[in-house]
Structures are given as C-alpha cells and as structure tokens.
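Design request, tokens follow.
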C-alpha cells in the first residue's frame, strides 16, 4: 500500500515554533515549512509532514496556493547585487598604504607643501581607480544565470476543494510549501521536498554534498538509509530531496517542504555574508605597513629635534621633515601592486580563461603552499572505467565483462531507460559492441534500490527453447542468489572486499539457463544462479591531473585531498596519479571528530587524504592548516564547499560550480582543471615576485637616503636637500619603478611561494639600506674634496646637485643589481627595468645642466666630481654584488 493513501486533515495547524534541530513550521499559525532533521533526530513520517504543511497528497487548491505565495514569497534565491564601482573605489581607500599616503598628503597640505600634497593625491586616485576598475570588471565577468535552479515544475493543483487534482506546468517561482509535484529523469529539484512515492529514484546531489555517485532515494518511513546506518545529516535522509540536486533515474511524487530563502540551497547564500577573512596578502600588507608607519611617525620629530638642538633651526625645517617621511614611503606601491595584479589577472583571463574576482587573491594564490581539493572532477573525471574482470578464482576472465555488457545493453534496450547509468556506460565502452547484438533480448527486470541488482533475459543464437538470465549488481545481493557453498560464498565476499579496499567499485555477475517462456520475468526468477565473476571499476583519471600535480610539487605546493568518498577510492586515485600516500597519511571523518584543533593542525601536516568529510570537516581542516602557518587555497564547486571556500586564504571555483560557490570564490576557472590552477599560481608568483622586488629595492634605497639625510642634516650648516629636490627625486625614482610591473622575474620565483614576510623584508632593507647609506656618506666625502669644504651659497647648490645626481645613479644601480640581477646578463634584449634604470641615470646626469635645474635649486657640477663619483659607484656595485651573493646563499630559491 502506498504511504500516502490517507490524506492529512486540513484542520491541523503547525504545532509550535520552528527550531534549528527539529522539523517545525515557520510560524505558530497556519501552514509552515518543514526541514529535514539533523543527525540523531527522528524523522517525521509522511503524515506528520503533511499535517505540518496543512496539505494532502492531492495538492493545493489555487486559492490556497495564492495565499501561501503572499505569505512565503516567491521561490527565488536571495538576490545577489554587484558592488557598484563607486563602492569599490571607496573600499580601495582602506588599503593601509593608501591611508598612510593620505595622512602624509594632509600633513603636506598643512605645511603648505602643495606640490607634495598634489602628487600624493594623484597617486592615491590612480591606485584606487585601477583597483576598483579591475574588480568591477571581474564581477561583471562572473555574472551568470543560476543554472542549478529549474525554471518550471509539474505540480498537482485543484481549481477548488472538491475538484480533481490536475497536473500543470508552472514557473518554479510560484511553488509554495504544500505543493505536490512530480519528478522524472533529468528534472532539477526546484525546492526542498519530502517524497510521497518513488519508483527506482536516484538523485545526483553533488552540488550539495560533493558526492560523485547518484544517491538512491525512497519514500518509505521505515526503510533505513544507505548501508543500514543512521543518517549522518539531512542529505543522507533517503526520503528527502533538496533544491540544487537533479534526478538521474526513476520517478517520484513529492510534497514541497521549503521554498525560497528557507531551502538548504538558499541558506548557503546567507553563509556567504559576514566579514571577509584576512588573506595572506592582507596580513603581509598590514605587517609591512606598520613597520613603515612607525618609521614615518618617528622621522619628522627626530629631524625637528635634531635640527633645533644642534643647528638652532625650528619649524622652518618642518617641510623638509615631511619630505624625508615621504621619501621613506613607497608612494607607488598601491599603483604598482594594482598594476602587477591587474596585468597578471588580465593575462590569465585572456590566455587561460581564469577570472580573478579579487585582485589581491592573485598574490594569495601565488603565496599558497597548500592546495585543498576534492577528488571527483579534479583528480578524476565524474565517470568510472572498467579496471579488471575477475573469475571466481581471482584471475582475469574476459567472459565476465562480456556477460556484464550483455546485461547493460539489453537492460537499456528493454527497460525503457533514457540513458545508461555511469557504471553501465563504462561497461559498454569497454566491451565489444558487435558481440552484444548477436543476442536477442526478450525481457529485463530493471534496477531496484532494494534488490541492488538488475537482470536481462536473452535468447542465445542456436539455442532454441532456452533463455539465459544475466544478473549484475551488488556483490552480496548476487551471491545470495547463487548456488554456492557457505565457505565458497565467504571466500568470494573476501575477494570482493579486497578489491573494494583497494579503492575499486565491485560488481558481481551471474547467469542462469532457463527454459524459454512467454510470461513476464520477475525478481522471483533471480535465484539458482551460477556465479561468473567480479567486475571492478575505478574512477577515470583527469587527463591533465598527473602532469599538473607534478608541476605543483615542483613549485612546492602540497596537495591535500578533502573528499566525501571512501578513503580507499581517494588513495587509489592518488596512487594512480603518482602522489605517494603513506599509511598514516589518511584520516576519516571519525578520526577528525576525536581531534582537538591543535591536534588536527599537527595531524594535517602529514595527512594527504581526508575522507568521508562533511562541510564542517573541510572547514576545520582548512582552518587548522592556516593556523599552522600555511597559505591555503581551496578548490570547491558545491554548496557544501562554501564554508571552506570562505575559510581559505584564496577560494577557487570552476565556472560551472553552484553559483553561490562561484560568487563566493576569489578565483574562477574556465574548467575544473588543475592545469588552470598551476597557471594561476605561476601568474600569482610572477606578480608577487615583482611586488617583493619593488619593495626590497625601494625600501632599502629609501632607508639609506633617509639615514644619510638625517646624518647630513646634523653635519651641515644647511639642509642637505631642499624639499622640492626631495620631491623631484622621489617622482623620478617612483616613475622608473613602474617598470617592475612589466618585468618578468627570475624563473626561480616559481619554485617557492611568494609570501611578503615583514620580518624578512625588514632584515633585507636594514642590511642593504645601511649599504646605501654608506655610499651616500662616501659621496659627502667626495663632495667635500670637490668643493674644498662647503660653506658658501654656491657650494650649497653644488652640494645639493651632487647628492641629487648620486642618489638617482645609486637608485638606478640598485634597480639593475637587485631588481634585474643575473637575468640581465642572460637576455639579449634589455628588460623594462634596464631601460628604466638607463632613463633614471640620464635624468640624474642631465637635470642639473638643464633649464629646469635652477628652478629646483640645482647647478652644474665640477668635472672632477664625476670621476670621484664613478669610483664611489664602482665600489658600491662591488659591495652590492657581494651582499646579494651572500643573501642568495642564505635564502636559496
């Protein structure tokens, strides 16, 4: 008898308020929504569900549907709004470096240093425009229709209470709780539903759970979940289907239990809200920013106090103090960072179809040293392939594949199936199709989730009056129907268990010879079978996965597999792809439950495969890896992956992922392909390498200049450089450094994550900055010799000109030796950095002699100065090369 033969009384109302753990209505009066219960909670029966919905198996009347529509609203996903360009622009102002520049610009305006204030404001505006424009383009590139939600549904509606229910097609937006709908093969489930009747129903819910195989569903209240175990969560409940899943086989009638924002699929949208996590880029930038802020806050007071105490100069040195602080700041950093990231993102989108939705995410993926991903669709394709056909003795037996293919072919032909399931398709692909058509199929008993097998009946040519039954399916189900001794049956179960433990799917094949007959065949005929053997199948490997994994390993990216599948299946895929998995490198969900966060962080270091993972487990693993100091990328495509996508430093999703996952991701791939991730990592490391090189060159040079300026300010009776000269020098150096955005770093940058570590950067700029300061102080000595002791106004102008020229030349030298380095000698054509350094050198030599020189307080230099300056620069170059060699020896690629 069908479970819904009795209609639920329409007078029963919702029993109480809705709870997160118990199914209940959304309100205390009138029909509400009903949720699938969580793990450990009793499931409501069909009648209980119908009572809470105030509905029945005949569906709703039009009047009831209209009332519920006004109450619950349309069955739509929450609206997603693109951020306006103006909002992205304002958000760009929150960048720490931008905030520092704005403060310096304000101080410059307060001391009437209008030129400095104008230049700083222009740099801030350019940086914010570039960043906002790039992120706005990325948002528009990922805008797409929500393909996982059906557009129409077949429901049973009645014109009035006493009328007969009539099936009709309506837009899914008009569905309401209590509607009764019909589902068939290929249908997308348009809302959360509770099954009323089901026949051979299997549902693909990978978008929700990440599970690759279709899941059998049934409507019976008293039948257990898969494997006879208690359901681990709502998605394991066999009586429930959820929005975002699709019907692969069978048919069903179901009642809608939740629509719109109350569905599990829509609830995932809510989990995408809230404050974003601090990524690796954010942490690095904040750390470097505070180092610079401390320097800049200390510099002006030190300059003012030193000049007041030793030289009797007071507030007139304030513009110079501000200029010194500006000189320490890498003013072009926001612009250069944006240019590097935007250029890399543009190349990725144009050449590999990878869209970077948040520009700093390109740096983060380059800094990633751990990549967490699912198995299905990434390491393997979403389809099986035949591995081996084994006879009863465990040896290869071709006839097992032959009989399995006969079963698959004639079941498909005679059972009126729209298409073969994935296992049958793999069997047919591996078999000889000509041999299949030699038989004449007469009947088929299709697959049933209860029997867990299927049977085809064929007539063999030359054997008149005889039929052959070919049965294929679950090993235990087939063995129970075979004529076997108990010990032989146990031996065969052990053989199958060993194959399954090796990560293979196992099917059993049996046949029976029967007299021909005309009456229908039924499951009762599946007895007295002769066991033929076992057929093993494995997941088809992604064609590019093995090479991509090798590239990732070479680039020091550790891959962690977080999957809902069986651990043996995941380990088998890793082994087939050349990824070694030690015995203690596998953890299951049960193992994770027993670990604290600190224990999980330690265990995650050695673990390669995390199996049977729920969304909560994936999120815990990602957070544990980040807490252990790793920069983590996470590749996910289902609604169940949302928490982990947000927890990672950089979330990655393919273009055909669930739209809530795609909209939450930082990087969107054209296909779920590891090769695309390898390209994104390369682009991120090139961009990160250019940013790191710019910071090293700029900050070490700036620090050296600031030390020299402070020293000169205490030794000289005049300011060592006028504020206008400091600003002009900074503008020239900053403009030249834009070349780093178009440079191609040393290939060695691909061999390690490009993480901006404030501590490492501080040590670098401290050492090379001190070296730069020594070169500046040597220049003071050269100037003293050239001028025979400064003391006149003309000598002051010559001193300013000499130091101005030396500063630009040393900065050009630093760009060549620290920025381009050995790559320049390896290339036949000059790099952008080389050209920029040459232009900077030309400006340093020509500007004092040009008509602009007197406007800046510069004048021509004595000829002897250039000879002595050449000697200083030569010594500085030798010292730089020695220091660079020592640094690379202690910091190998």
């Amino acid at each position: 008898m069908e479970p819904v033969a009795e209609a639920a009384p329409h007078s029963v109302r919702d029993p109480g308020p809705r709870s997160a753990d118990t199914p209940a209505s959304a309100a205390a009066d009138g029909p509400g929504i009903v949720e699938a219960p969580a793990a450990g909670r009793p499931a409501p029966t069909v009648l209980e569900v119908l009572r809470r919905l105030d509905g029945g198996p005949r569906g709703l009347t039009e009047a009831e549907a209209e009332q519920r529509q006004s109450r619950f609203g349309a069955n739509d996903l929450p609206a997603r709004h693109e951020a306006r360009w103006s909002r992205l622009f304002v958000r760009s102002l929150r960048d720490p470096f931008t905030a520092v520049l704005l403060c310096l610009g304000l101080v410059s305006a307060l001391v009437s240093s209008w030129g400095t204030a104008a230049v700083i404001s222009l740099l801030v505006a350019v940086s914010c425009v570039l960043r906002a424009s790039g992120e706005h383009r990325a948002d528009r590139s990922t805008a797409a229709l929500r393909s996982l939600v059906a557009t129409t549904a077949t429901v049973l509606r009645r014109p009035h209470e006493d009328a007969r229910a009539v099936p009709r097609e309506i837009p899914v937006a008009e569905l309401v709780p209590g509607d009764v709908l019909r589902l068939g093969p290929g249908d997308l489930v348009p809302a959360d539903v509770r099954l009323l009747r089901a026949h051979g129903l299997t549902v693909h819910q990978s978008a929700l759970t990440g599970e690759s195989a279709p899941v059998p569903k049934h409507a019976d209240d008293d039948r257990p979940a898969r494997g006879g175990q208690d359901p681990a969560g709502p998605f394991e409940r066999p009586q429930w289907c959820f929005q975002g899943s699709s019907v692969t086989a069978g048919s069903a009638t179901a009642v809608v239990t939740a629509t719109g924002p109350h569905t599990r699929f829509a609830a995932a949208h809510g989990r995408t809200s809230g404050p974003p996590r601090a990524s690796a880029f954010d942490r690095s930038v904040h750390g470097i920013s505070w180092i610079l802020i401390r320097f800049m806050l200390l510099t002006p007071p030190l300059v003012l106090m030193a000049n007041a105490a030793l030289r009797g100069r007071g507030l007139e040195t304030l513009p110079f103090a501000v200029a010194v602080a500006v000189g320490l700041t890498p003013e072009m950093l926001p612009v250069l960072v944006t240019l590097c990231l935007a250029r890399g993102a543009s190349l990725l989108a144009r050449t590999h179809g990878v869209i970077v939705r948040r520009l700093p995410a390109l740096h983060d993926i380059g800094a990633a040293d751990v990549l967490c991903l699912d198995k299905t669709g990434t390491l393997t394709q979403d389809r099986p392939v035949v591995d081996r056909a084994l006879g009863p003795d465990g040896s290869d037996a071709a006839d097992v594949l032959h009989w399995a293919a006969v079963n698959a072919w004639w079941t498909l032909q005679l059972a009126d199936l729209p298409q073969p399931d994935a296992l049958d398709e793999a069997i047919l692909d591996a078999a000889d199709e000509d041999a299949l058509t030699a038989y004449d199929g007469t009947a088929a008993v299709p697959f049933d989730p209860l029997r867990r097998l299927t049977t085809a009946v064929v007539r063999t040519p030359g054997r008149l009056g005889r039929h052959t039954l070919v049965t294929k399916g679950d090993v235990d189900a087939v063995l129970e129907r075979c004529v076997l001794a108990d010990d032989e049956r146990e031996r065969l179960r052990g053989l199958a268990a060993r194959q399954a433990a090796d990560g293979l799917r196992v099917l059993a094949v049996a046949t029976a010879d029967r007299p021909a007959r005309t009456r229908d065949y039924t499951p009762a005929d599946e007895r007295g079978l002769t066991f033929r053997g076992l057929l093993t199948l494995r997941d088809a490997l992604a064609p590019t996965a093995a090479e991509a994994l090798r590239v990732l390993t070479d680039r020091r990216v550790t891959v962690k597999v977080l999957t809902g599948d069986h651990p043996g299946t995941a380990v088998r895929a890793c082994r087939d792809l050349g990824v070694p998995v030690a015995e203690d490198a596998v953890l299951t969900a049960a193992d994770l439950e027993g670990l604290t966060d600190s224990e999980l962080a330690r265990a995650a270091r050695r673990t390669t495969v995390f199996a049977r993972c729920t969304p909560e487990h994936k999120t815990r693993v990602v957070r544990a890896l980040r807490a252990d100091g790793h920069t983590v990328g996470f590749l996910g495509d289902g609604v169940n992956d949302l928490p982990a996508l947000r927890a990672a430093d950089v979330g990655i999703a393919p273009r055909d992922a669930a739209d809530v996952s795609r909209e939450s991701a930082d990087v969107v791939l054209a296909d779920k392909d590891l090769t695309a991730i390898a390209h994104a990592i390369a682009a991120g490391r090139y961009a990160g390498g250019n940013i790191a090189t710019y910071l090293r060159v700029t900050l070490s040079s700036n620090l050296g200049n600031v030390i020299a300026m402070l020293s000169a300010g205490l030794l000289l009776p005049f300011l060592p450089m006028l504020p206008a000269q400091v600003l002009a020098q900074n503008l020239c150096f900053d403009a030249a450094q834009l070349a780093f955005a178009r440079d191609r770093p040393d290939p060695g940058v691909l061999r390690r994550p490009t993480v901006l570590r404030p501590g490492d950067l501080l040590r670098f700029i401290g050492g090379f900055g001190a070296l730069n300061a020594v070169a500046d102080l040597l220049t003071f000595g050269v100037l003293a010799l050239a001028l025979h002791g400064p003391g006149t106004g003309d000598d002051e102008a010559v001193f300013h000109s000499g130091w101005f020229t030396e500063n630009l030349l040393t900065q050009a030298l630093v760009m060549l030796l620290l920025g381009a380095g050995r790559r320049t000698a390896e290339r036949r054509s000059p790099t952008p950095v080389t050209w920029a350094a040459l232009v900077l050198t030309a400006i340093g030599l020509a500007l004092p002699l040009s008509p602009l020189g007197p406007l800046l307080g510069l004048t021509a230099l004595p000829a002897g100065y250039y000879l002595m300056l050449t000697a200083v620069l030569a010594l500085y170059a030798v010292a730089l090369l020695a220091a660079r060699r020592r640094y690379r020896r202690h910091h190998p690629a």
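Comment from the thread starter after seeing the answer: thanks! The domain at 46-74+151-258 is CATH 2.70.150.10 (Calcium-transporting ATPase, cytoplasmic transduction domain A).
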